[in-house]
Design goal:
alpha+beta, single chain, six-stranded antiparallel β-sheet, 2 helices
Length: about 250
Protein backbone atom coordinates (compact mmCIF):
# COMPACT_ATOMS: atom_id res chain seq x y z
CA UNK A 1 0.00 0.00 0.00
CA UNK A 2 2.73 2.47 1.01
CA UNK A 3 4.70 1.50 -2.07
CA UNK A 4 1.73 2.48 -4.20
CA UNK A 5 1.51 5.84 -2.44
CA UNK A 6 5.17 6.50 -3.12
CA UNK A 7 4.75 5.51 -6.79
CA UNK A 8 1.79 7.86 -7.19
CA UNK A 9 3.67 10.67 -5.44
CA UNK A 10 6.67 10.20 -7.75
CA UNK A 11 4.33 10.46 -10.73
CA UNK A 12 2.96 13.75 -9.37
CA UNK A 13 6.51 15.08 -8.84
CA UNK A 14 7.43 14.11 -12.41
CA UNK A 15 4.32 15.92 -13.62
CA UNK A 16 5.37 19.11 -11.82
CA UNK A 17 8.82 18.96 -13.46
CA UNK A 18 7.20 18.56 -16.86
CA UNK A 19 4.88 21.47 -16.19
CA UNK A 20 7.89 23.69 -15.41
CA UNK A 21 9.45 22.84 -18.79
CA UNK A 22 6.16 23.36 -20.66
CA UNK A 23 5.58 26.71 -18.92
CA UNK A 24 9.11 27.85 -19.84
CA UNK A 25 8.58 26.84 -23.48
CA UNK A 26 5.21 28.56 -23.68
CA UNK A 27 6.49 31.74 -22.01
CA UNK A 28 9.30 32.00 -24.57
CA UNK A 29 7.26 31.14 -27.67
CA UNK A 30 7.81 34.71 -28.91
CA UNK A 31 11.48 34.97 -27.87
CA UNK A 32 13.79 35.08 -30.93
CA UNK A 33 16.19 32.16 -31.15
CA UNK A 34 14.72 30.36 -28.12
CA UNK A 35 15.22 26.59 -28.07
CA UNK A 36 12.57 24.53 -26.33
CA UNK A 37 13.23 21.78 -23.82
CA UNK A 38 11.72 18.31 -23.86
CA UNK A 39 11.48 16.42 -20.54
CA UNK A 40 12.57 12.80 -20.68
CA UNK A 41 10.49 10.74 -18.26
CA UNK A 42 11.68 7.29 -17.25
CA UNK A 43 10.48 4.74 -14.74
CA UNK A 44 12.51 3.76 -11.73
CA UNK A 45 13.92 0.26 -11.62
CA UNK A 46 11.08 -2.26 -11.41
CA UNK A 47 10.82 -5.11 -8.94
CA UNK A 48 10.09 -8.66 -10.01
CA UNK A 49 7.38 -10.15 -7.81
CA UNK A 50 7.11 -13.85 -7.20
CA UNK A 51 4.50 -15.91 -5.35
CA UNK A 52 6.27 -18.15 -2.84
CA UNK A 53 3.36 -19.65 -0.95
CA UNK A 54 0.67 -22.11 -1.87
CA UNK A 55 2.72 -24.26 -4.18
CA UNK A 56 5.83 -23.84 -6.31
CA UNK A 57 7.38 -20.40 -6.72
CA UNK A 58 5.69 -18.57 -9.59
CA UNK A 59 6.65 -15.25 -11.08
CA UNK A 60 3.89 -12.66 -10.79
CA UNK A 61 5.58 -10.01 -12.96
CA UNK A 62 7.31 -6.63 -12.71
CA UNK A 63 6.17 -3.97 -10.26
CA UNK A 64 7.07 -0.35 -11.08
CA UNK A 65 8.18 1.80 -8.17
CA UNK A 66 7.41 5.12 -9.86
CA UNK A 67 8.70 7.52 -12.50
CA UNK A 68 10.71 10.71 -12.70
CA UNK A 69 12.13 13.26 -15.14
CA UNK A 70 15.60 11.96 -15.99
CA UNK A 71 16.69 14.94 -18.10
CA UNK A 72 15.52 18.07 -19.88
CA UNK A 73 16.80 17.77 -23.44
CA UNK A 74 17.18 20.96 -25.49
CA UNK A 75 15.72 20.80 -28.97
CA UNK A 76 18.25 22.56 -31.21
CA UNK A 77 16.03 22.35 -34.27
CA UNK A 78 15.75 25.56 -36.28
CA UNK A 79 12.81 27.87 -35.72
CA UNK A 80 10.96 29.63 -38.56
CA UNK A 81 12.33 32.93 -39.87
CA UNK A 82 10.29 36.12 -39.67
CA UNK A 83 11.07 39.53 -41.15
CA UNK A 84 12.45 42.06 -38.67
CA UNK A 85 12.82 45.16 -40.89
CA UNK A 86 15.99 46.06 -39.02
CA UNK A 87 19.39 46.39 -40.75
CA UNK A 88 21.08 44.80 -37.72
CA UNK A 89 18.78 41.78 -37.56
CA UNK A 90 20.17 38.58 -39.03
CA UNK A 91 19.23 34.91 -38.88
CA UNK A 92 21.37 31.81 -39.24
CA UNK A 93 20.09 29.35 -41.84
CA UNK A 94 21.47 25.96 -40.86
CA UNK A 95 23.73 25.01 -37.96
CA UNK A 96 25.81 27.47 -35.95
CA UNK A 97 25.65 30.04 -33.19
CA UNK A 98 26.60 33.70 -32.90
CA UNK A 99 29.37 34.36 -30.40
CA UNK A 100 28.81 36.95 -27.67
CA UNK A 101 30.72 38.10 -24.60
CA UNK A 102 29.02 37.00 -21.37
CA UNK A 103 30.25 37.85 -17.84
CA UNK A 104 31.89 34.40 -17.53
CA UNK A 105 33.45 34.33 -21.00
CA UNK A 106 32.18 33.48 -24.45
CA UNK A 107 28.58 32.41 -24.87
CA UNK A 108 26.57 31.36 -27.89
CA UNK A 109 23.12 32.28 -29.17
CA UNK A 110 20.81 31.89 -32.15
CA UNK A 111 19.12 35.22 -31.43
CA UNK A 112 20.30 37.63 -34.14
CA UNK A 113 18.21 40.60 -33.02
CA UNK A 114 21.18 42.94 -32.57
CA UNK A 115 21.44 46.67 -31.90
CA UNK A 116 24.06 49.34 -31.20
CA UNK A 117 24.65 50.45 -27.63
CA UNK A 118 25.46 54.02 -26.55
CA UNK A 119 29.14 53.44 -27.43
CA UNK A 120 28.42 52.24 -30.95
CA UNK A 121 29.12 48.57 -30.16
CA UNK A 122 27.06 45.77 -31.59
CA UNK A 123 25.17 44.06 -28.75
CA UNK A 124 22.34 41.60 -28.23
CA UNK A 125 18.93 42.68 -27.04
CA UNK A 126 20.05 42.05 -23.45
CA UNK A 127 23.28 44.06 -23.86
CA UNK A 128 25.90 41.34 -24.39
CA UNK A 129 28.70 42.30 -26.79
CA UNK A 130 28.53 40.54 -30.13
CA UNK A 131 31.95 39.24 -31.15
CA UNK A 132 33.44 39.37 -34.61
CA UNK A 133 36.67 37.92 -35.93
CA UNK A 134 38.51 40.91 -34.39
CA UNK A 135 36.61 41.03 -31.10
CA UNK A 136 33.78 43.40 -30.14
CA UNK A 137 32.33 45.14 -33.19
CA UNK A 138 32.08 48.93 -33.33
CA UNK A 139 30.05 50.58 -36.05
CA UNK A 140 28.22 53.78 -36.87
CA UNK A 141 24.49 54.48 -36.98
CA UNK A 142 24.36 53.40 -40.64
CA UNK A 143 25.63 49.88 -39.84
CA UNK A 144 24.15 46.90 -41.59
CA UNK A 145 24.91 43.18 -41.82
CA UNK A 146 25.42 41.31 -45.09
CA UNK A 147 24.59 37.69 -45.88
CA UNK A 148 28.30 36.90 -45.59
CA UNK A 149 28.28 38.04 -41.96
CA UNK A 150 30.26 41.18 -42.76
CA UNK A 151 29.26 44.26 -40.79
CA UNK A 152 29.32 47.35 -43.01
CA UNK A 153 29.47 50.91 -41.72
CA UNK A 154 30.49 54.11 -43.44
CA UNK A 155 30.84 52.29 -46.75
CA UNK A 156 33.45 49.82 -45.48
CA UNK A 157 33.56 46.43 -43.79
CA UNK A 158 34.41 46.89 -40.11
CA UNK A 159 34.35 43.21 -39.09
CA UNK A 160 32.70 39.86 -39.70
CA UNK A 161 30.41 38.03 -37.32
CA UNK A 162 31.82 34.88 -35.74
CA UNK A 163 29.58 31.87 -36.30
CA UNK A 164 30.63 28.61 -34.66
CA UNK A 165 29.27 25.13 -34.07
CA UNK A 166 30.10 22.23 -31.79
CA UNK A 167 30.62 18.50 -32.16
CA UNK A 168 28.08 17.89 -29.40
CA UNK A 169 25.40 20.55 -29.20
CA UNK A 170 23.51 18.42 -26.67
CA UNK A 171 26.31 19.15 -24.19
CA UNK A 172 25.79 22.93 -24.35
CA UNK A 173 24.52 24.40 -21.09
CA UNK A 174 21.73 26.97 -20.98
CA UNK A 175 22.52 30.10 -18.89
CA UNK A 176 19.48 32.29 -19.64
CA UNK A 177 18.82 35.22 -22.00
CA UNK A 178 18.89 32.74 -24.89
CA UNK A 179 22.59 32.02 -24.26
CA UNK A 180 24.51 28.76 -24.04
CA UNK A 181 28.01 28.00 -22.80
CA UNK A 182 30.19 25.11 -23.86
CA UNK A 183 31.50 22.65 -21.31
CA UNK A 184 34.36 20.22 -21.97
CA UNK A 185 31.97 17.60 -23.37
CA UNK A 186 30.69 19.93 -26.09
CA UNK A 187 34.12 20.22 -27.67
CA UNK A 188 35.89 23.33 -28.90
CA UNK A 189 33.96 25.84 -31.00
CA UNK A 190 34.77 25.54 -34.68
CA UNK A 191 34.06 28.25 -37.23
CA UNK A 192 31.44 27.41 -39.84
CA UNK A 193 30.49 29.08 -43.09
CA UNK A 194 26.90 29.64 -42.10
CA UNK A 195 24.33 31.03 -44.48
CA UNK A 196 22.92 34.22 -42.98
CA UNK A 197 19.67 35.95 -43.85
CA UNK A 198 19.82 39.71 -43.12
CA UNK A 199 16.61 41.47 -42.19
CA UNK A 200 15.15 38.32 -40.64
CA UNK A 201 15.28 36.81 -37.18
CA UNK A 202 14.86 33.20 -36.13
CA UNK A 203 11.73 32.63 -34.07
CA UNK A 204 11.47 30.19 -31.16
CA UNK A 205 11.25 26.56 -32.21
CA UNK A 206 8.30 25.87 -29.92
CA UNK A 207 4.68 25.72 -31.02
CA UNK A 208 2.16 27.12 -28.50
CA UNK A 209 -0.52 24.68 -29.69
CA UNK A 210 1.81 21.72 -29.20
CA UNK A 211 2.74 22.96 -25.75
CA UNK A 212 -0.94 23.33 -24.87
CA UNK A 213 -1.63 19.72 -25.92
CA UNK A 214 1.32 18.53 -23.83
CA UNK A 215 0.07 20.61 -20.91
CA UNK A 216 -3.35 18.92 -21.03
CA UNK A 217 -1.78 15.45 -21.22
CA UNK A 218 0.50 16.13 -18.25
CA UNK A 219 -2.36 17.59 -16.19
CA UNK A 220 -4.48 14.49 -16.82
CA UNK A 221 -1.61 12.22 -15.77
CA UNK A 222 -1.07 14.36 -12.67
CA UNK A 223 -4.76 14.12 -11.74
CA UNK A 224 -4.72 10.35 -12.23
CA UNK A 225 -1.77 10.02 -9.87
CA UNK A 226 -3.50 12.34 -7.41
CA UNK A 227 -6.63 10.18 -7.41
CA UNK A 228 -4.58 6.99 -7.02
CA UNK A 229 -2.78 8.47 -4.03
CA UNK A 230 -6.04 9.64 -2.44
CA UNK A 231 -7.72 6.25 -2.88
CA UNK A 232 -4.79 4.43 -1.31
CA UNK A 233 -4.60 6.93 1.52
CA UNK A 234 -8.33 6.56 2.24
CA UNK A 235 -8.07 2.77 2.13
CA UNK A 236 -5.10 2.81 4.48
CA UNK A 237 -6.92 5.14 6.86
CA UNK A 238 -9.97 2.89 6.86
CA UNK A 239 -7.81 -0.15 7.55
CA UNK A 240 -6.21 1.60 10.52
CA UNK A 241 -9.61 2.55 11.94
CA UNK A 242 -11.01 -0.97 11.52
CA UNK A 243 -7.96 -2.52 13.18
CA UNK A 244 -8.31 -0.07 16.06
CA UNK A 245 -11.82 -1.32 16.77
CA UNK A 246 -10.75 -4.92 17.09
Amino acid sequence: MLRGIYAAASGMAAGLDQLDAIADNAANAQTPGFKGRVPVVTGFRSLILSRIRDGPVAEVGPLSTGAGVEALVTDFGAGPLRPAEDPLAVAITGPGFFVVQAPGGEAYTRNGMFRLDSQGRLVTGTGHLVLGEQGPIEAGPDASILATGEVVSGGRVVDRLRVVDFARRDALQRIGDGLFVAGPQAGLPRAVEAALTPGFVESANVNPVTEMVRLIAVLRAYEACQKALRVQDDTLGQAVREVGRV
